[in-house]
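User: I'm new to structure prediction. If I give you an amino acid sequence, what do you actually give back? Let's try with this one:
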Amino acid sequence: MNNPFRKSTLVLSRKDPASMTMLKILEKRQNFDNIEENSGYSKLQSKNITLIVLNEEMIYCDNIEDIEDSDRFVFLSRHVSQSKKPTLTSHFLGNPSNEAPYGGEKMQIAATCPELMKNYMMNLYKQKNSLLNYEISLEATHHGPTSISKPCIFVEIGSEIKQWQDENAAEIVIKSVINSIENQIDVNKVGIGLGGPHYSKKFTELLINTEYAIAGYISRHYMEYFNQEILEQMIEKCEQEINYAIIDKKGIGKERKRVLEILQENELKIISI
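Assistant: Good question. You get back a string of structure tokens that encode the predicted 3D arrangement of the chain. For your 273 residues, that looks like this:
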């Protein structure tokens, strides 16, 4: 492959029931040695996987790089939604607005790894027939931590306690994560995603069915805050070069003219879906 192999570290939390179910599955798959433990976290190591098990909620862990040196971090988390639909989601991190209610800093985008996100979503979709009633969806970029310099993704099981404790779903998620970490793929067409709902069927299908990958997805709910500063963060904090802006043609609304001008000024190739 053309891209260098990148080490990924898995991050979990003892305060997160879905995270603990996924830890149970990981420990069933292989033996881990507890190589470090203190009041803030435990560090477990197997032959090829490092786990950081936090004693705090993951969205506030901006210091994860002080705990482990890694090329990427994969946070294994619960997903919560008002609909309570069984859902397996993944998303990049950041607060693309003037609010930061769930960790991180306002108007700050975290580093991204388009290859890993695309790879994970493709691996997960291959197993959809074993997922019964679960939906698979990319979520819009949201919440913290946002100041980690290395790329991160959140991988989530939702949306209530029944799903958080579902070992079959956890097994499939862990299998997909491990496959994505160990079998990295070539990704040459990378864009930013803009517009559309928080859960985007269009961008989910884009990742699964096309050659494109995305470095963050900002939903229509935050288009009024999209500006040159946010765009520069998305470009500079991506581990790959970004050449495209992929927009939901029905999802930008009244901000369309202003957003398109920003994209054109930065010479991004615009693709509408």
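You can read the tokens as a compact description of the fold. Here is one thing that stands out. Helices lie at 17-29, 64-67, 114-126, 161-164, 167-182, 201-209, 228-236, 256-265.
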